[in-house]
Amino acid sequence: MARQPVPDILAGTLDLLILRTLHHERRHGWAISERIQQISLDVLQVNQGSLYPALHRLEHQGWIDAEWGISELGRRAKYYRLTAAGRRQLAVEAGEWERMAAAIARVMKMA
Amino acid sequence: MNFRDLRLRVRAVFAPRRVERELDDELAFHIERETRKHVAAGLNLTDARARARARFGSAALAADQCRDARGTAFVDTAVRDVLYALRTFRRTPLVALTIVGTIAVGLGLVAAVFTIFNTLVFSVNPVRDPDALFAVERVAAPNSERVRFTWPDYEALRRETDVFSGAFARLVDIDSRIEGRVMGGELVTGNYFDVLGVNAALGRSLTPADDVRHAGRQVLVLSHRGWSRLFASDPDIVGREMTVSGFRYVIVGVMPERFRGLGLAPPDYWAPLSLMGQVRPIHAGREDTIGIEIIGRLKPGLSRTTALAGLAVWASRGAGGLSADGRPGSITLEPRRTFVTLSAEVVLVFLPIFFVFGLILLIGCANVANLLLARALSRQREIGIRLSVGASRHRIIRQLLTESLVLALASAVCAFAIARLVLQVTVSVVLRTLPPELAENVSITAPGTDWRVAVFLVIAAIASTVLFGLVPALQGTRLDLIRTMRGEVTSDSRPRRARNALIVVQVTASALLLICASIFLRGALRASTADPGWRLADNVIVEINNEPFRQAMVAATTADPAVTMVAAMWPGVLGQPRAVFASASAKATADKQAAGRADGARSPEVYRFVSPEYFSLLDIRVLRGRAFTQSEASSNAAVAMVSESTARTIWPNQEAVGQVLRLEADQHSETRRQDEPTLPSSTFTVVGVVRDVAGFRMAGYPEAGVYVPASPARAETDLIARVHGDPEIVRRTLVERLTSIDPNMGLVLTMRTLGRMETYLLQVGFWVTVVLGGLALILTVSGVFGVLSYLVERRTKEIGVRIALGATSANVTALVLGQSLRVVGIGLIAGAALAWILATVLMTTSAAAQIGGIVNVFDLPAYAASLLCIVIACILAASLPAARAARIDPIATLRQD
Question: Which of the residues B2, B42, B222, B276 has the least number of beta carbons within 10 Å of its own beta carbon?
Fold first, then answer.
């Protein structure tokens, strides 16, 4: 497949995307990466090798919580869910992101 | 760090296997799920799996990064590194053992010195807030002894100053024989224990109420040591009585074990200072004039400077501050936080000792470095492989560092044991070799250790292993990957130069130590063979300390059946001989020449009061004239005897007998006591000339050039008794007999012991340096041997070629020997030069100059002997590898690869 190289997710935004995907329901790692890819219409591809370290880091920060559950394959999988602290963090980071995106958009449009 | 984080970390550390398994499961699930997705899209299982894996990337890497996220990676890696290091050591146990052993020996010796240093300088006195404790002292006027405070001074100080929240007075080192054993006592004021903030372990301590003189019951407090020595730690001790100097005391308490007062070792008992006259009968009736020590606790918040200012005001008002000659003396405050206050002087004393002991450590470390340099080559391949499979240089250096640290800790532990052993052995050897009459008076125990020693050991161990272990290892990580993988060792010229430098250092250090050892040995030999000129075999010296008992002591000594003759002398055994200026007196002679000389030619001499028997008792022959008569002795007549050389100096071309001698006390060069005997007049008629006597130079006990008469009845004189039978047995019966007269009496010593003491210090110096020098030599030899063996092994092929081309075995041996001896030669020259320079530098200090008079620090035969010793040892060490090189079979080596 001679596709254009997929742009790597903007540095620092992976955490935000993960938190956002977990906003409504708990998911396992694969589902998170799949979800990001789907919603972004394949524009954003999560580097799988950096997804799990990020998940573990967020777990240590107390923003997401992990629990083992039975997956759609009938196999044990590790599910992540947003904690209260994670919800607050998501709000903060989403706000930040919007401000940043708006700023960049303004620069692109008007400069 | 939040709670959740902590929980996860704890889990990762304590259930690592479970956490690892979960991580594996999680990642495996992801790949499985991805595979399913591709299968659902129509790929076959194999392709689907391959694509899933490719998309995921390195699972191991992801897992590693997840581990990093845990924040326990540090622990994990450390554990893994330690395990790896232990595996390496198990593979090459000899290497690990050699390193640990070598460093432990060197470090143990240094730690032993540090333990002593620590006890003296850092070990804080075990009392409440020792920082606020200061001794009040007068500043000594130049060339005179410090004038000590007295009891009235102490009371004045307490009454008239307000810098101390509490101040006590004490008198230390009161030795008396209690039940035949010498027990040490300390006399203190009643507030002593209160000021120091220590309570009794049993019963009570002394209180200010005990200060009242003759207040009924006389009490004392035992130290833990005294309790166990005298009463076998009897728990019912309180209330029992014990006799000191003929008076009964009630034991009112026992102090805790850790309390040792302000000394290195506790006394056996503390008694009230007010009972001074009882404990030491010599002080009876003049308690107010005896010098005592005053120590106070500064009021909280008061600095030393402020306190000093306050005391200066007090001193300038007169009263207690008056010095001996009536002028207000200045006052200092000496810290009593530790036994010795750290000062430049203390450092100067310990520096050479640390240096000498440190040399062993240095030589050992050089060996270790050489060993590791050799091993770095064999490890190059291992490191190369690890680097090429992706280990970062950082990671490998960390691994090597961990290895060094593990070795360092093992060395530190062994060094601790070695230091304890060294100290204990030293103490027991000293106690065993000291003459028994001195050994019973000293109480030496190995100094204790504390956390400072432990910290010192760990830091020193880490410093030495890292310095000498890591540097060669670091060089190992800087290498050409491809070639090392192939097993080609990159030949770098640097290790060879480093190796040679290390051997030079080792040889230099051992040369230095061995030269010291042989200088001491020759000094001790010379001292032990030197004839002091006194008859030593059957004489016993009896010190009389307490004048009230003089008559009884003299009578008892004379009456002893084993004693045949008794003489008196002053200064005594341990007294400093007094100096005078002697000159021919013009008054008594008409000789113009002598009269002209009399004013200028004053010759410094040492004089001694002796009784008439002195000369025959010590076999000092009277050459001309006669000895003193008994009547001259008892009347302190103005007659004198001189030694041959003194006679020659003062009357060069004349008969000394019959001349008049003028003696003028040398007021400036000596410290003198107020109560010492004084010369009866300034001019003396010379009645006899005796042969020269060398005396004990080491003990600072030279024989006099001028003798003046005295009798045993004269105050301050000591006795010498000629005995028949074994002098040691006579000494013991004398001790028994005389203690019943004066329990606080001084030493009773055989002259033989005194003769042995003369060489004892030199022998100590010799044994210390010989042990160190021997160790240094062994380490150096093993180093030379190891390096040469290794080099021969590496050069096998080259040597094989040489032999194949016609080199004889003599050529090959010469090649190997020559290679090592050149390096050894450089070391020898450096060592000898260093010893010479150090000796020159040391001789400029006054303390060492005194030693210089006894041992010859520029003793050429000693230098030659020790250098020869090293050369022989190194040739022996080199000959084995050389012989092996000569036996190399050229065919076998050429066929090797």
Answer: B42
Contact by Cβ (8 Å): B241, B251:
yes
Q: What is the pLDDT of residues B302-311, one digit of tens each?
A: 888 888 888 8
DSSP state of B199: -
CB contacts < 8 A (A, B): 75
Phi, psi of B740 (to 5 degrees): -70, -20
- Sole residue written with tokens 């692109």: A108
ipTM value for the complex:
0.87
Q: Which of B85, B103, B101 is nearest to B457 (CA)?
A: B103
Helix (H) or strand (E) holding B232: none
User: Residue B696 to residues B572, B702, B830: CA-CA distances in angstroms?
Assistant: 13, 5, 36
Separation of alpha carbons B875 and B813, rounded Å: 11
Which residues, listed in sequence order, are joined to residue B701 by a DSSP beta bridge?
A: B696
In the predicted structure, residue A6 carries a pLDDT above the cut 50: no
CA angle B325/B329/B330 to nearest 5° reads 160
pLDDT of B588: 46
Partner-chain contact B55 A57, CB within 8 Å: no
Task: Calculate Rg over the CA atoms of chain A.
Answer: 15
Estimate the share of chain B in helix, then strand, then coil, as percent rounded to the nearest 5. 55, 15, 30
Write down the pLDDT at residue B281.
67
Domain spans, chain A: 14-110
- Cis peptide, bond prior to residue B571, ω within 30 of zero: yes
Residues composing chain A: 111
Residue type (1 letter), B228? S
Interface of B with A in 6-45 (CB under 8 A): 8-9, 22, 25-27, 29-30, 32-34, 36-37
pLDDT at B316 over 50: yes
Which residue is associated with the tokens 């499961």? Answer: B25
Comparing alpha-carbon positions, the chain A residue that sits nearest to B57 is: A49
Q: What is the 3-state secondary structure (H, E, C) of B601-640?
A: CCEEEEEEEECCHHHHHCCCCEEEECCCCHHHHHHCCCEE
Distance between CA B897 and CA B893 in Å, rounded?
8
Residue B427's identity, in one-letter code, is V
B69 touches A: beta carbon within 8 Å: yes
Give the residue among B756, B760, B819 at the shortest CA–CA distance from B790: B819
Q: What is the pLDDT of residue B675?
A: 57
Task: Please tell me if residue B47 touches chain A, with a CB cutoff of 8 Å.
Answer: no
Nearest-angstrom CA–CA distance, B767 and B503: 25
The rounded radius of gyration (Å) of the Cα atoms in chain B is: 38
A53 → closest Cβ in B8, B32, B66: B66
